[in-house]
Amino acid sequence: MKLTDLHIRKLKPGPRTARYSDGHGLFLEITPQGSKLWKMAYRFDGKQKTLSFGKYPFVSLLRAREKCAEAKAQLYDGLDPREKEKAEAAVKVARTEHTFAKIAAELQEKRKKEGISKTTLQKRDWFIRLINKDLGDMPITEIKPVDILVPLRRQEARGNYETARRMRSSIGQVFRYAVATARADHDPTFALRDALITPKVQHMAALTKREDFARLLQVIWTYEAGSEITRSALKLMAMLYTRPGELRLAHWNEFDFEKRVWTLPEERMKMRRPHHKPLAEPVIEILRKLQEQTGNRVRVFPSLTGNDRSISENTMNQALRRMSFTKEEMTPHGFRSSASSLLNESGLWNPDAIEAELAHADSNQVRRIYHRALYWEERVRMADWWADEVLAMAQAR
């Protein structure tokens, strides 16, 4: 007998779950707790299955029958209504949970666990915040290339071509992570490769001729303005030619004066591998003198505005400007090019040893380990020779 609303309202829960049929596989299930649930029993591919339609009275008798009729129509077409229900649920989750912002945040959390440097994470956070203004709330499966162009074109309109290029790269990383975790099918940024303005490559300014570099060193060694910390940092940049961030963020416990080695931790290295640099005696002398001033701190180059921070990226830049070297002539990063050019020009050192000293790591792990062991002694001799050369140029008149 078919159910009626009056009949349903009069039904009371019992000690066990009870079922009341309405025909065509549709039935009302009443639990001991009093819940009245609409369900449908059916067979598909030789298997007995059950489909749920919701709770009475939120789903009325009429609506339950409509749902039952829809399911029957799907069965007639050879479709499993339960799989359709799962697909619709997945779409709903994708719209609310699989948004660009949530997947981007998840990727950032993964990077933190992988030990990506704080500075790199902060840069990527900045790009994601810019992108989220336009794409953050959108389901990742619904984002098209034209949607991605919106924040990119905005940056290009401001002349920020490199920012636009890096934003596209960041968006692509999020999409590739979504693809890898089965929440997207493809990376739409691939279609935008040729859509953006290519920024003109600007190399870090450097003095690579010996006479020009010697003039710079003479100014640094006679420079009396600024702090001892800044002067020491510039002298060590000339002698050690590391990346500026690798030097300015150095900790005292990384230096072993007895073994004459500076061990740079992997989290501060561009290639995310520890790097060992031999220390020449003139380098150790500069460090020991600086240690008298900052040796009671964790950082070798602490900021004057706070003991828990290092000098800023602009500290050495500003000092070079005060020395009358423009940004088109020299930058802190330029010390690497200066040293590389003059070391190669000397003809005394194996180019691979110079590359190893610059921490230009080989992508082949076996080759990298082999070269590190093979060239260490040569790098020690090269460090001593280069430090003497720097002093000779600095003191020449």
UniProtKB/TrEMBL annotation:
Q: Which PROSITE patterns match?
A: CB, TYR_RECOMBINASE
Q: Which residues form the Tyr recombinase domain?
A: 202-384
A molecular-function term among this protein's GO annotations: DNA binding
Gene3D superfamilies hit by this protein? 1.10.150.130, Integrase, DNA-binding domain, Intergrase catalytic core
**InterPro entries the record matches:** CB (IPR044068), DNA_brk_join_enz (IPR011010), Integrase-like_cat_sf (IPR013762), Integrase_catalytic (IPR002104), Integrase_DNA-bd_sf (IPR038488), Integrase_DNA_bind_dom (IPR025166), Integrase_recombinase_N (IPR010998), Phage_int_M (IPR053876)
Superkingdom of this entry's organism? Answer: Bacteria
Is DNA-binding one of the keywords? yes
| Record key words, sorted | DNA integration, DNA recombination, DNA-binding
Name the PANTHER family on file: PROPHAGE INTEGRASE, PROPHAGE INTEGRASE INTS-RELATED
The similarity comment for this entry is: Belongs to the 'phage' integrase family.
The identity of this protein, by name, is Phage integrase family site specific recombinase
- Which species is the source of this protein? Hyphomonas polymorpha PS728
